[in-house]
Design goal:
The chain is of the alpha+beta class. It has three domains: 2-69, ACT domain (Alpha-Beta Plaits, 2-Layer Sandwich), CATH 3.30.70; 71-120, ACT domain (Alpha-Beta Plaits), CATH 3.30.70; 131-161, no CATH class. It has helices spanning 14-24, 51-60, 80-93, 122-129, 135-141, 154-157; strands spanning 2-9, 29-36, 41-48, 69-70, 72-77, 98-107, 110-117.
Length: 161
Amino acid sequence: MDYHYVILDDEPSAAAAALATLWGEGVNLVGFSEFPHGPGKTQLDLIAHDSRALAKKATDMGLTVSRVKTGFMIRGDGSPAPAVADMLHRLASANIHVTSLQAVEAGGGRFGAMLWVKATEVEEAAKVLGATVPCSDLVDETSQESFPASDAPSWATSGRG
């Protein structure tokens, strides 16, 4: 997953206002994470279907937007514990350090997780995890006429850093 982050004042309404404004501007966020970023500041990681549109809208709002960053969005069936434990074991076996991880049961027998590693380890982590580029992202990067979503080229599904 590609994402951007913004640094906000650590006020109870700051993240709520940013999220509401982005939603009102038509940005479809698929995930976000907020955590302390030093005295009086908070970091808001923003994950959208279209990270370029997100960055433009957030910049238009007057926010300072990070360069594009990469992490992993994980979805699965069942409890997150066994699947996430397996992923962590595979990463550890490859000597890849996890920077951050959040996993939750989503109900209906499903779970979701977000996982980050150091930028220098993203490509290797993608290989270890067998990560692929969702077909919906291909249209943003290539012509739909050249690569229909149902026929993703092999380079696009082999992992991306």
